[in-house]
Design goal:
Distance between the termini: 40 Å
Structural class: alpha+beta
Strand content: 15-25%
Shape: globular
Helix content: 40-55%
Order of helices and strands: HHHEEHHEEEHHHEEEH
Strand order of the largest sheet: 5-4-3-8-7-6
Number of helices: 9
Length: 256
């Protein structure tokens, strides 16, 4: 629940709490589970869930459990940072995948986290925890480092907060992160080795929009064992440059 606990939540906040009850490991929930996870009385949850189901925002399966409905997907597809960006990026992401047959990802920055808009994976590619629509802390991912390096205001906010660690290789101090971001700005790419999972290494590069500001980042994720990340840099940077140009990035932008 994200609303202010000192005052009664509005109807909109209650609806958002219900939708926020779903997660990657909780894709189907009963009415009582929705009520409990959203912190709402059962009667209130019953009324709101019924209205959401009528609109198509929630769907009920044969076991009586609720899932996120297709109507929400239709609404989400209208997000300007999602659809247009993804459409411009897909040809370059597909080319990068065909050249490597490794995981290829597209992400944007949302606060201190990255949100993944697209991922192309091969059957033999290393397992990754990211998913389309999923979030991860920016400081612990290649795409996040590429984005933070060109988002100074957000970076300062992240630097001021404790950094969550996932492995022994995760960047855990502000000083370490600041040095890393300076290197990413200088080099035009980011390498994240074993920060989320020790088995995976990513190489990422920023994508710039028509306003010259960083709009997204792309990455390729490979097995960390015996990886040669510098050999992947040219292909990743070329794909990022292609997407930037497709988005209308001015020539004066710091294209990777």
């Amino acid at each position: 629940m994200r609303h202010n606990a000192t005052s009664p939540p509005s109807v909109a906040e209650r609806v958002l709490d219900l939708l926020g009850a779903f997660s990657t490991d909780r894709r189907a929930l009963s009415l009582s589970e929705l009520s409990r996870r959203a912190g709402l009385p059962l009667s209130t949850a019953h009324r709101l869930v019924g209205e959401l189901a009528k609109r198509g925002a929630l769907e009920r399966d044969g076991d009586g459990r609720y899932r996120v409905g297709l109507w929400l997907w239709e609404v989400a597809a209208l997000a300007p940072r999602g659809t247009g960006l993804r459409e411009n990026a897909m040809p370059f992401l597909e080319d990068l995948y065909e050249a490597t047959h490794e995981n290829v990802q597209l992400a944007v920055l949302d606060g201190a986290e990255v949100v993944y808009l697209e991922r192309i994976s091969g059957r033999a590619a290393v397992n990754v925890v990211s998913r389309v629509g999923g979030r991860l802390p920016a400081h612990a991912t290649g795409v996040g480092l590429a984005l933070l390096a060109h988002s100074p205001t957000v970076a300062e906010t992240v630097l001021a907060e404790p950094l969550k660690r996932f492995t022994d290789k995760t960047i855990g101090t502000g000083e370490h992160l600041r040095r890393t971001l300076a290197t990413v700005r200088r080099d035009g790419f980011a390498i994240s080795d074993g920060q989320i999972e020790l088995i995976a290494l990513s190489v990422a590069a920023p994508v710039f929009g028509a306003d010259g500001e960083v709009a997204a980042a792309i990455s390729i994720v490979v097995p960390s064992e015996n990886a040669d990340p510098l050999a992947l840099v040219p292909a990743v940077r070329a794909a990022a440059r292609g997407i930037s140009r497709a988005l209308g990035a001015p020539l004066s932008s710091p294209l990777p």
